[in-house]
Amino acid sequence: MKNIMPKKIKNVLCVLASGMLATAACIISAQATDYTIIDLGTLGGIDSRGADINSSRQVTGSSWTEDGDRAFLYGGTTMQDLGVPPDGLESRGIGINDNGEVTGYSKIQGSTSYFFYNHAFLYDGESMLDLGKPEGSIGSFAYAINNDTWVAGRITYSSAEDPFIDTSHAFLYDGESMQDLGTLGGRHSHADGINNNGHLTGWSDVTGDSASITDDSSITHAFVYDGNSMQSIGTLGGTDSYGRDINDNGWVAGYSEIPPDDIKHAFVYDGNSMQDLGTLGGVSSYGHGINNDGHVVGYSQLPDGTFAAFLYDGYSMQDLCVLTDCTQHGWDSLYIATSINERGDISGYGKVHDEDHAFLILNDGTPPPVPEICDDGIDNDGDDLIDCDDSTDCNSDPVCDQPPPIEPEICDDGIDNDADGLTDCSDKDCRRDPACKTGGGKKR
Questions:
Q1: 19 within domain boundaries
Q2: Is omega for the bond preceding 403 within 30 degrees of 0, making it cis?
Q3: Contact, 370 vs 382, CB < 8 A?
Q4: pTM for the complete prediction?
Q5: Structural domain harbouring 343
Q6: Nearest-CA neighbor of 279 among 252, 260, 254, 303?
Q7: Which of 73, 143, 206, 382 is the 20 to 30 A CA-CA neighbour of 105?
Q8: Do 362 and 378 belong together in one domain?
Q9: Is residue 321 classed as helix, strand or coil in its secondary structure?
Q10: For the chain, what is the domain count?
């Protein structure tokens, strides 16, 4: 199921040396970087797609099964099927936070066998909660979640003008309800990323209707929602732009049209301006994930017209398959990198042995985290907690589902400490306790 390989590289940055004509100085970092690429496998079908990764190297995404798409959680050893909410038929995992909570959306059975809704869901570590849809809407999709369990996504409404074209609005779910964030003036908006400050990014129509096949005049811009209002962050000179992820510093990764408008390039927005990240030699590129160091992942066209996953490390865009030497270890290609965490670990999906599989790239060559085995008396994951004392890992394990230990009876406090209906000296546990003996050694 797994294909694991390490690759050691050195980061090279060539800069123009100040005061020297046409002289380039190449600065080679003293510290090499190890990479390990892991094939996450599938849930029994022939494909899987990694969507997001957290700081503990847990990955969520979706995998095809005989029952349709299923959201999964990969925790270091195997891919766990997260199932579906009540009345759900399929599910797709899209976002994960550092608590291991997963969000996404599920296909829900409608009033007839051929009619379905989509509802956002929240997986809390034990079960899936259907987040439903606000009154007046016809569905909801969740795409991102932060460590406060706030969720970002979009709500869909039926169009009065054209029943075949829905209207979508970005939403923020704060643990209690979905707030419709409106648009930048057009018909549609869509929230794709949220940071731990509750700020969102995504895209919104500024004018017109980007979903209508009859409206070619729409303008769509990437936005930042700062908790109060939605603000356009502009473009790279073209008409449209799209925000896909936002870090805790408020930096945004996404893609924008450049002149002419049939070309799109990945960008990073630092709160003031957009930087064009270029391509891997082809025409277009698309930014998808960003971490707090400003490192961006996504995918880019190659000179031959095919696409490859990339890492932008703050200096240049690098082909992840080349970086990890993926073809030497069973992979045909790495299509798309979807997310990067603070360690620089990356999730996404590619082709291995002619199947599409989710991957996890570890940036330091260490093996995946070892899960706690809850009944072997060993601290397997090295967090100084053993078996059922490791509540984070073993709380839901059946071997730890035991009643709390019985408290010993204290024989002179007037309380039934061991909850057996007998108090103090009336309890046989106190027979030999000095508090229950008289001077002649008899029980009171």
A1: no
A2: no
A3: yes
A4: 0.77
A5: 34-367
A6: 303
A7: 206
A8: no
A9: helix
A10: 3
Q: Give the span between the Cα atoms of 349 and 279, in whole angstroms.
A: 19
- In single-letter form, the type of residue at position 407 comes to E
**Structural domain includes residue 409:** yes
Question: Of 372, 320, 356, which Cα lies nearest the Cα of 77?
Answer: 372
CB atoms within 10 A of CB 425: 18
Helix (H, G, I), strand (E, B) or coil at 27: strand
How do strand 355-362 and strand 33-39 relate by DSSP bridges?
antiparallel
- In this structure, the answer to whether residues 70 and 128 fall within a common structural domain is yes
What distance in Å separates the CA atoms of residue 202 and residue 141, rounded to the nearest whole number? 13
Give the C-alpha separation, 392 to 282, whole Å: 45
Residue 127's contacts (CB-CB under 8 Å, 6 or more residues apart) are none
Give the angle 409-415-417 at the CA atoms, nearest 5°: 35
Going residue by residue through the chain (444 aa), what tens digit of pLDDT does each one get? 445 544 443 333 333 333 332 322 233 232 345 889 999 999 999 899 999 999 999 999 999 999 899 999 999 889 999 999 988 899 999 999 999 999 999 998 765 555 688 999 999 999 999 998 988 899 999 999 999 999 999 999 987 666 556 889 999 999 999 999 999 999 899 999 999 999 999 999 998 777 665 666 789 999 999 999 999 999 999 999 999 999 999 999 999 999 988 899 999 999 999 999 999 999 999 999 999 999 999 999 999 999 999 999 999 999 999 999 999 889 999 999 999 999 999 999 999 989 999 999 999 865 555 667 888 888 877 788 888 888 777 876 778 876 666 778 888 888 888 888 888 888 888 878 888 876 443 333
